[in-house]
Structure formats: structure tokens, C-alpha cells
Amino acid sequence: QVQLVESGGGLVQPGGSLRLSCAASGSIFSINAMGWYRQAPGKERELVAAITSGGSTNYADSVKGRFTISRDNAENTVYLQMNSLKPEDTAVYYCTANPMDYSGSDFRRYDYWGQGTQVTVSS
Hints:
Distance between the termini: 40 Å
Low-confidence stretches: none
Largest sheet: 7 strands, mixed
Helix content: under 10%
Radius of gyration: 13 Å
Shape: globular
Strand content: over 45%
Number of helices: 0
Mean pLDDT: 96
């Protein structure tokens, strides 16, 4: 089994920044691609960003140029640097991973999920 634990969420003003972290443990040999999804109240879960084992990235159009995903394979950790935050970025952010090195937007292809961390952008 794989455990994913997120940290770094919180309350930030519009225009501010946050950095999310997700540490993987357990059967980490089965992890290749990692990523972040988010879900706001009343909305569907959506891919924010994903990164393959080789470092290729995929971003939602709504966050391109503002968010950056990165990973530290030695530490089994993935990060999401969020800059120029907007109120519409408010959501629960979930870390996810899969063994197939898939970095697309079909959430059914991600096998492992964290518990989520709340990000609230408000003045």
C-alpha cells in the first residue's frame, strides 16, 4: 500500500502564495506519476497538475503560469508551488499518484490518494 500525506494548505489573501507538499510512504516502488487534484464545493474534482517519473508536467489551463509542480524522488515528495492565488483557487487539494506514469486528467487512472488539504483564498 501507498500512503500520501499532504501539508501546506491554509488561508491566504488574493495574490498570495502557498506551497503544498505531499510525502509518499509504503510501497513507493509502485509510484511513478504524481499529481494534485482539487475539488471545490459543488464542483467536480479537477486535475491541477501532474508530473511523470521523468519530470514531464501537465497543468490545467486555469493554473498555467501561476502554479509549478515539482518532485524530489530521493525524498518521495511532490510539491505544488502556487503563486498569484485567486479566490477561485479555493478548494480541497488532493495529492495523487499512479504506477503507470499517467499524467492526464482522468482521475480514475490514479490509484492512490491523500486525505486532502484545504486551501482558502480570501481577503
